[in-house]
Design a protein that fits this description.
Helix content: under 10%
Distance between the termini: 26 Å
Low-confidence stretches: 10-27
Mean pLDDT: 92
Oligomer: single chain
Strand content: over 45%
Number of strands: 19
Structural class: mainly beta
Length: 454
């Protein structure tokens, strides 16, 4: 059924383009006038991933293929509609459901290319309706409703770095006053997480990801106990020639609230940035027992992040530092997105931690001919201790991580084609027992992504 739906959208899109070609010299009437300038976009993607765990722990590898088709109607008196669908197949790979005998768990990263939350582990008919929306636009302002693409925020975002992205449902108002002042106000009540091909009401999606542990070490068990209607978002951005300010508030109904402040200043070849995030529990947490709470009433997270960047022709150097106070763990429903502090890098985020120091160094070099970029990132997390659950939701160790990345875009005849190779090496500093490091520390990972955008 899902395959038929995806093919129906493809055939419908093709028929529109064919109608446009056949009627270029004809008078436009009815729906033809509305759809004549309909745009068809999308991409075809192939993602090969392999994770090599330490010692005798099981390794995993897979190759996923698929793509996205997006169809957008032309603007008609300010209104437009859009639909997007994604499809993924497992083309090559070993059994991702096989468990490691020592750790007692199976694949993590490779499963996220498919559907981590579907018990039947169907890898061959994964299809999702990513977008289905109505939008009204006036000048640079717009309001959209339905299954929508959202403006980027530092917590709730698309994160289109797997086979499918985070997808969101709700209403979004965007006001843009000459790009100097922009405002966003939104309410999201549904989500399809990045590693899922199903849609959920927010209260059903909340808790789908790992629930981790309570501060006293008990396993957390809060899924299904929060009748949350969604998340409200307010975002303000000020942009000047050399100065940018962002103020964002996320109100997760009955769960918690997060305030994010950010400022960046550019001068000559340098850029300086500061971030501050505050997370506090809402009163509904107190009505539940200790083990059933998402966030304890006395927990309050304070996170400070800073960076300095230097740009010189084709080079970019960035040095970043983040400190999370020991007043509580930084928590937000990660079914909606990933946090993006200045020290965040692929395969390493701050959510779930408190009382830690994070250092990161980024280096980029870009060749003009060919269109090639080399990137290196080194990150070190200190202060996370196994067994110290009051500041460590997922019981992970302090880490060292090195990412190396190559991006290449050929042009001319193959315009739209791109290749990306990412190598990740992540190692725990102190703990090396199988049940602790499996898919979390002491592993190498290779990612090779081919994209063709049309």
């Amino acid at each position: 059924m899902k395959i038929r739906l995806f093919l129906s959208i493809l055939l419908f899109s093709s028929s529109i383009l064919y109608s446009q070609q056949q009627n270029d010299n004809a008078s436009d009437v009815g729906l033809l006038k509305l759809f004549k300038n309909t745009s068809l976009q999308g991409h075809v993607r192939n993602f090969a991933m392999a994770t090599f765990n330490d010692a005798d722990l099981r390794d995993y590898a897979t190759n996923a293929s698929g793509g996205v088709i997006t169809l957008t109607t032309p603007n008609f008196k300010g209104f437009e509609a859009g639909v997007a669908a994604s499809l993924t197949f497992k083309t090559i790979g070993i059994d991702l459901t096989a468990l490691d005998l020592e750790a007692g768990t199976g694949s993590k990263w490779e499963l996220e290319l498919y559907d981590s939350f579907n018990a039947d582990n169907n890898f061959n008919q994964l299809m999702r309706l990513d977008e289905l929306y109505l939008k009204y636009q006036y000048k640079q302002h717009y309001i959209s409703y339905g299954k929508i693409g959202i403006e980027y925020t530092r917590i709730i975002n698309k994160r289109d770095t797997r086979m499918n992205r985070f997808a969101h449902r709700g209403a979004w108002l965007h006001l843009d006053f000459n790009a100097t002042h922009t405002f966003d106000a939104a309410w999201l009540d549904g989500v399809s997480p990045r590693a899922s091909y199903d849609w959920f009401d927010f209260e059903d999606a909340f808790g789908m990801a790992s629930q981790g542990f309570q501060p006293n070490g008990e396993p957390a068990a809060y899924r299904g106990l929060y009748p949350s209607h969604g998340v409200g978002i307010f975002n303000y951005q000020f942009h000047a020639d050399q100065f940018d300010i962002k103020v964002t508030n996320f109100l997760f109904d009955k769960i918690n609230t997060t305030t994010w402040l950010e400022a960046e200043y550019s001068v000559s070849d340098f850029e300086f940035g500061l971030q501050y995030a505050l997370t506090a529990a809402l009163s509904h947490n107190q009505s539940l027992s200790y083990a059933q709470r998402y966030m304890q009433p006395d927990e309050q997270a304070h996170v400070f992040s800073s960076h300095v960047s230097w740009y010189q022709k084709r080079w970019k150097f960035d040095l970043a530092y983040t400190h999370a106070l020991d007043t509580g763990r930084f928590l937000f429903p990660k079914e909606l997105g990933r946090d993006d502090f200045f020290t965040s890098i692929p395969r390493s985020r701050l959510e779930g931690l408190g009382g830690v120091d994070v250092f990161a160094i980024h280096t980029d070099y870009t060749f003009l001919k060919p269109d090639l970029q080399l990137s290196f990132a080194y990150q070190e997390v200190g202060g996370a201790e196994v067994g110290q659950f009051q500041l460590n939701k997922y019981n992970i160790d302090s880490t060292r991580q090195l990412n190396s990345q190559i991006k290449f875009k050929p042009h001319r005849f193959v315009e739209g084609l791109s290749f990306e190779l990412l190598w990740v090496y992540r190692r725990y500093k102190n703990e090396h027992s199988p049940e602790l490091i499996f898919n979390k520390g002491d592993f190498h990972q290779l990612n090779f992504v081919t994209n063709y955008n049309f």
